[in-house]
UniProtKB/TrEMBL annotation:
Keyword entries, A-Z: Cell membrane, Membrane, Transmembrane, Transmembrane helix
Superkingdom per UniProt: Bacteria
Family the UniProt entry places it in: Belongs to the resistance-nodulation-cell division (RND) (TC 2.A.6) family. MmpL subfamily.
Keyword Cell membrane among UniProt keywords: yes
Parts of the chain that traverse the membrane: 175-195, 202-220, 226-246, 267-295, 301-325, 360-378, 516-535, 547-568, 580-599, 628-648, 660-684
Organism: Kibdelosporangium philippinense
Membrane topology per record: Multi-pass membrane protein
Protein name: MMPL family transporter
Gene3D superfamilies linked: Multidrug efflux transporter AcrB transmembrane domain
PROSITE patterns: SSD
Subcellular location: Cell membrane
């Protein structure tokens, strides 16, 4: 691998104009594709095969007009007035909405009879003729414009997410992380040229990745979170991978190596580590497909594609641009500083010696402290976004608050019951018996018939729980209704299925929760195999995986404490605690696995390189940490800064995702990799590099530390020095 990348770097440097031109052309094509072919993303999550989706599919077949998306509009009269006094305005708004494209019907509070006891708050219903992802933005805008007429008349009007239609957007605040990353690069290199190169190549890679993803939204159902996740990862790893290569190149040039040779060797050595580090991230993200959840698979593949582009950019575009930069990669100030005989020893060496002196103390402190942070993880509750989790003051949050105030929390997330009525019985009589039975179920507030199919065989009912859509009580109610299906059929003759957005969210959350252990087993197994191949060791992979599991446990614990319990909520702009987004634990596990292996590769490859070249095991730990600590610190701070930039997002999903990844990277880089790893490697001693002979014979040599490349170059140089025969 090292020799292949060495030759690739030489070729990219020699043909740097062509390489740069190709990448810029690809960027232009991706941009044109995004502008010309971008479709809609969605905030709706579903999984084929779960009970709620099966019931919804059955409803689409039998009663298609009731299976489309539906939204709510809440009207609240000013204090001292009632909705009846505002009826002309409200009827006018509803009539205008009813004429809107893709709207099958709009029903005012006076038709639905959903008016509070004091007559001040009412609930209107909008039924769309298409599924949620197919509702056009123009349709939503037309409805919002119509509702504005009520607001202009002094009536408070708010609407649900299906009408709000606010997709996750990338704003100015997310750029804060990029600014901080630029500052870290300048401080690391002390040169604008060297600092700007990783930023430039990362932005080109991200532009290609994000442009390509938006171009694909016209043919692939993609959640609005997927491009944001790809942007997060693409920026973070793109900057970091270029950083590792540029750092190695500068170090070699400062050591006296010729610039062109240094470029190739940097790609052959640091580039090998980048390749395998990127491969672990890609495998972890592609591995999300094994859980069988389509929207999560798309998110994983989208992010993996962006990371793959970042790796390709690092291995081809970076050497090309380094060829343009030439000697300017190292400033005169940096050369003078490097030659200073009185320069201070690098912090990494001092830290490595401190940890290796007291490895057991470091081990105990880390396990105890991270174990304490992980305790809230045992209280993890998962759910999907709904109006109750929307940002404070948004239309959907106000709609939820008004509905809860007027009718109770269950009206914010009604369940939809699809019933196959018994044959040979009057449909209305069968429907009445079913309503009577369902009304007796514990925690049911109301059951309202909503329609019967033309052939009289299928009915749809709206069931209002006592509790809100994200609560454990509603989850228990759905499970209870499904458990009583046989009893209900025996007493009423009707076979029921439970669906609706609330039931769909519950089923998706449960499926994700069940998939997490399987996914953990898959990626833990992959980490053991990959690291065993890379480092030809048994203990190194086990140690790396144990550290990764500590990182994940502590990260989930911190997320629960802040976003579910509300601790430090004011500091991070979390206005109220809510269940953790269902796909966050599994997504965070995959991403942190890949990033943890990044730092493991860069740190431990330095330790192995020192050991291979004759250091004692303990000295190899100190030297490996000393060589790598500065660049790993910079990389971790950059990645944390990029992720933290997303914590300022108004969207709770993106906010929690950004925090989870930023916290996880900080813990893994500084606590696990730079403290726990050297402590354990010191305790292991020479045993850390033990590898059974039979495995050594069958394991391919990937040469992450570049030992084979060094021998190859040495042989070439010796051959060149042999005088030709006269």
């Amino acid at each position: 691998m090292a020799k292949l990348l060495y030759r690739l770097a030489h070729a990219a440097r020699r043909r740097r104009g062509l390489v740069l031109g190709i990448w810029l052309l690809v960027l232009a094509v991706a941009g044109v594709g995004a502008l010309g072919f971008a479709g809609q993303t969605t905030n709706q999550f579903s999984i084929p095969g779960v009970e709620s989706q099966q019931a919804l599919d059955h409803l689409k077949e039998k009663l298609p007009q009731a299976a489309g998306a539906s939204g709510r509009i809440v009207f609240a009269a000013p204090q001292g007035r009632t909705l009846a006094q505002e009826q002309p305005v409200i009827d006018g708004v509803i009539a205008q909405i009813g004429k809107t494209e893709q709207v099958a019907g709009a029903f005012s509070p006076f038709v639905t009879q959903a008016i509070s006891q004091d007559g001040r708050i009412g609930l209107a219903q909008v039924q769309f003729s298409v599924s949620p992802p197919e509702v056009k933005e123009s349709t939503k805008d037309a409805i919002k414009n119509a509702v504005q007429a009520a607001s202009n008349s002094g009536i408070e009007a708010a609407y649900s997410q299906e009408i709000a239609g606010e997709m996750v957007a990338i704003g100015v605040t997310e750029g804060i992380g990029v600014v901080i990353a630029a500052i870290v690069l300048i401080l690391t290199f002390g040169s604008l040229v060297a600092a700007g190169l990783p930023m430039l190549t990362a932005l080109i890679g991200v532009g290609i990745g994000i442009g390509g993803l938006y171009a694909l939204t016209s043919v692939i159902d993609m959640s609005s979170t997927a491009p944001v996740l790809a942007l997060m990862l693409g920026l973070a790893v793109g900057i970091d991978y270029a950083l590792f290569i540029v750092h190695r190149h500068r170090k070699q040039v400062l050591g006296g190596m010729e610039v062109n040779e240094s470029i190739a060797r940097a790609i052959g050595t640091a580039g090998s580590a980048v390749f395998f580090a990127g491969l672990t991230v890609i495998i972890a993200l592609v591995g999300l497909t094994v859980v069988g959840i389509p929207f999560l698979s798309v998110m994983g593949l989208a992010a993996a594609a962006t990371v793959a582009i970042a790796v390709l950019v690092a291995l081809t575009l970076v050497p090309a641009i380094l060829g343009f930069v030439g000697e300017k990669i190292v400033s005169e100030k940096s050369r003078a500083k490097d030659m200073d005989p009185d320069k201070k020893e690098a912090f990494g060496y001092r830290w490595g010696r401190a940890v290796s002196k007291r490895p057991i103390t470091a081990l105990v402190l880390i396990v105890v402290s991270l174990g304490a942070i992980a305790i809230p993880a045992f209280s993890l509750e998962m759910g999907l976004p709904d109006d109750s989790t929307a940002p404070e003051g948004s239309p959907q949050q106000r709609a939820n608050a008004l509905v809860t105030e007027a009718f109770g929390p269950g009206f914010s997330g009604p369940l939809v019951v699809v019933a196959d009525l018994p044959s040979g019985v009057n449909p209305q009589q069968a429907l009445g018996a079913l309503v009577g039975k369902l009304s007796t179920v514990k925690d049911v507030t109301r059951v309202v018939p909503a329609g019967v199919s033309p052939d009289g065989t299928t009915a749809v009912l709206q069931l209002i729980p006592n509790s809100g859509p994200s609560t454990e009580a509603t989850k228990d109610l759905v499970a209870q209704l499904r458990a009583q299906t046989g009893e209900i059929r025996a007493q009423t003759g009707s076979t029921i299925g439970i669906t609706g957005q609330t039931a769909l969210n519950i089923d998706v959350s449960q499926k994700l929760s069940n998939a997490l252990p399987t996914y953990l087993i898959v990626i833990v197994g992959l980490s053991l195999i990959l690291l065993a191949i890379m480092f030809r060791s048994i203990l190194v992979p086990i140690k790396a995986t144990a550290g990764f599991l500590l990182t994940v446990a502590a990260s989930i614990g911190a997320v629960v404490a802040i976003f579910q319990w509300g601790w430090l909520g004011d500091l991070l702009g979390v206005t109220h605690g809510s269940p953790i987004i269902s796909f966050l634990p599994i997504l965070m596990t995959g991403i942190l696995f890949g990033l943890a292996m990044d730092y493991e590769v860069f740190l431990v490859s330095g330790m192995r390189e020192s050991f291979v070249h004759g250091d004692t095991p303990k000295q190899a730990v100190v030297d490996g940490l000393g060589h790598s600590a500065r660049v790993v610190t910079a990389a971790a701070l950059i990645m944390t800064a990029v992720f933290m930039g997303f914590v300022f997002s108004h969207d709770t999903v993106i906010k929690s995702m950004g925090f989870a990844l930023a916290f996880g990277v900080l813990i893994d880089a500084f606590v696990i990799r730079m403290t726990l790893v050297p402590a354990l490697m010191t305790l292991f001693g020479k045993a850390a590099w033990w590898f059974p002979r039979f495995l050594d014979r069958i394991t391919p040599n990937v040469d992450v530390e570049g030992e084979t490349l060094a021998r190859h170059i040495g042989q070439q140089e010796r051959h060149e020095k042999v005088p030709e025969p006269v």
